[in-house]
Amino acid sequence: xxxxxxxxxxxxxxxxxxxxxxxxxxxxxxxxxxxxxxxxxxxxxxxxxxxxxxxxxxxxxxxxxxxxxxxxxxxxxxxxxxxxxxxxxxxxxxxxxxxxxxxxxxxxxxxxxxxxxxxxxxxxxxxxxxxxxxxxxxxxxxxxxxxxxxxxxxxxxxxxxxxxxxxxxxxxxxxxxxxxxxxxxxxxxxxxxxxxxxxxxxxxxxxxxxxxxxxxxxxxxxxxxxxxxxxxxxxxxxxxxxxxxxxxxxxxxxxxxxxxxxxxxxxxxxxxxxxxxxxxxxxxxxxxxxxxxxxxxxxxxxxxxxxxxxxxxxxxxxxxxxxxxxxxxxxxxxxxxxxxxxxxxxxxxxxxxxxxxxxxxxxxxxxxxxxxxxxxxxxxxxxxxxxxxxxxxxxxxxxxxxxxxxxxxxxxxxxxxxxxxxxxxxxxxxxxxxxxxxxxxxxxxxxxxxxxxxxxx
Length: 457
Hints:
Keywords: Membrane, Transmembrane, Transmembrane helix. The protein is globular, with a radius of gyration of 21 Å. It is about 80% helix and about 0% strand. It has one domain: Amino acid/polyamine transporter I (Up-down Bundle). It is built from 18 helices and no strands. With about 450 residues, it is mainly α. α2 runs parallel beside α11 (about 225-255) and α8 runs parallel beside α11 (about 225-255). It starts with a helix and ends in a 10-residue tail after the last helix.
């Protein structure tokens, strides 16, 4: 039995239903997309910021094509690691790209945890107190760890309940705000600056990040009921639900606040938009919904990232140390995930966390599409035109986002480049050491993951 099969057998197959998968996917997306990123997107895109969400949904739908085709063929827990290994073989490209995906998930945890903290402290006027934001964000991450440590059914059941509360609550807020404010005031009464078309395009990187929660579903494929059918269905339903919610909220915020007001309150823009439309009670209602959405987002993201890291470790694509901890690799990965996420939540603000996540995710996504196009297209029955369109869309958005950030915050571009370089270099060093250690033992070399997949140059 290869390491992939061994990992699959160690998990609870069929423990996540279609509804549970949708709840997990939307939990990650809505947690990041609405409460953490609306202000960031509006700052770049101006009055046209609702269109950024539409563009993000279109690019994400193209991107999802590769993941759906691969998951329908080979549903797997830690599925993106499986996709990359089948596309590139168990080498540096596959392991480094999978590591970037895992890191983007962990970055998302810290992003949403800080958003949770900002909304939790907003009623007390303490949202600008740095150490308090960090402390509350860490508490949210620890809580997410405890829920995940309780098992898959706890995560799935918790996600269903939380998603129902937040989707219903956000929809009520959005519809009521639009009804109260109309669509002719606020940001939508401001002139559109055509000279900022490049910034609008760059904002799509944040919008894509708002939809990337669909990968939570891909990474839990081996644990879903009837995964060959339900993984693809769950992804598309999750994206459809989120675009409806995102557009409603974007229209509600844009009709209630000017762009300058959205930017000023960008870390808590929904709560700020609720106050002029509904007064103090509306403000508190939005805060409660935000806390529900963000904590469920952290839980779902911890779930996905830890399973992906466990898969990479079982495939011997990552080094692993127990550090004296008891239990198996899965429990260790939960600890590593929350430690890294907690560290990021302390060191970076929301804008930089979101930017770093966008860089990591877009580069990884392009590697997935290229690998499927080059090596697996015929095997999974994928169309080259759609794969090329997904590659082109990612490339254009990444280029625009990089140019925009070089103007406004060149340091985060440097951090992203250094981070990606460290991931590739670290994986090359680790895998080189693995090859040297096993080169004299043919039997172990066979067990190291060469289970029929071709190593591609």
